[in-house]
Specification:
Layout lengths: L1 E7 L12 H10 L3 E6 L4 E6 L4 H16 L5 E5 H9 L4 H6 L4 E6 L5 H9 L6 E5 L2 E5 L15 E5 H12 L2
Antiparallel strand pairs: 1-3, 1-4, 2-3, 5-7, 5-8, 6-7
Helix pairs in contact: 3-6
Length: about 170
C-alpha cells in the first residue's frame, strides 16, 4: 500500500466550497481508500491505496466529489515519497527555516517549462522568489502573501511550509 496526500483547491476558504472533512474522508473510504485522515479544514487528505497513478487518483477523487457534493474541486495528489522529496529538494532552506508561514509550495497539474517560469519571474515586482520542482513551484513571500502583487494564474494549489511538514509527519506515522 502507498500513502497519498490529496490537496483540494479552494475549499472552505472565505465561506466558499464548504465541505466537511468527515464527509470527504467517508467518500475516500467508499472509494476503497484506507486510513483516511485530514489536516486542517482546507482540503489536505492523507490516505492509503494500492500503488497507482497520482493523475488517475486525482481524476477519481474529482469525479467522486462532483457526484457526491455537486462541486467541481480541482485536486492534486502526491505520494508520501513525493512530499518528502519536496522537503529535501527545497532551494529556499533559509526562508523555510526563518519564515515558514511565508514559504509556499504550489502543486501543479503539469510541469512548467523554463520559459513559463521566466515569464512568471519577469512579472515579480516585489521580493518574492520562485523555483521549479517536479510539477510544483516553490515560492517565498518575504513581505507577506496578502500584500503581494504576484498573481499566479496556474492550475495548482499552494500550501505553506508548516502544513507540508505536518503532512509529512502524519504520513510517516504509517
Amino acid at each position: 500500500m502507498t500513502t497519498y496526500c490529496a490537496f483540494l483547491r479552494g475549499i472552505n476558504v472565505g465561506g466558499n466550497n464548504m465541505l466537511r472533512m468527515a464527509d470527504l474522508l467517508a467518500m475516500l473510504a467508499e472509494m476503497g481508500f484506507s486510513d483516511g485522515r485530514s489536516l486542517l479544514q482546507s482540503g489536505n487528505l492523507l490516505f492509503r491505496a494500492e500503488e497507482g497513478s497520482a493523475v488517475a487518483i486525482e481524476a477519481a477523487i474529482e469525479a467522486a466529489i462532483l457526484r457526491r457534493f455537486g462541486k467541481q474541486i480541482r485536486t492534486f495528489v502526491r505520494t508520501r515519497e513525493d512530499l518528502e522529496s519536496v522537503l529535501t529538494q527545497n532551494p529556499f532552506r533559509e526562508e523555510a527555516r526563518s519564515d515558514p508561514g511565508h514559504m509556499l509550495v504550489m502543486f501543479l497539474a503539469a510541469d512548467l517549462s523554463a520559459a513559463e517560469l521566466a515569464k512568471i519571474q519577469a512579472s515579480v515586482v516585489g521580493r518574492e522568489k520562485l523555483a521549479l520542482g517536479p510539477r510544483l513551484l516553490y515560492i517565498t513571500y518575504p513581505d507577506g502573501i496578502g500584500d503581494s502583487k504576484l498573481k499566479l494564474k496556474l492550475d495548482g494549489t499552494a500550501r505553506n511550509w508548516n502544513t507540508l511538514n505536518k503532512l509529512v509527519a502524519m504520513a510517516s506515522d504509517d
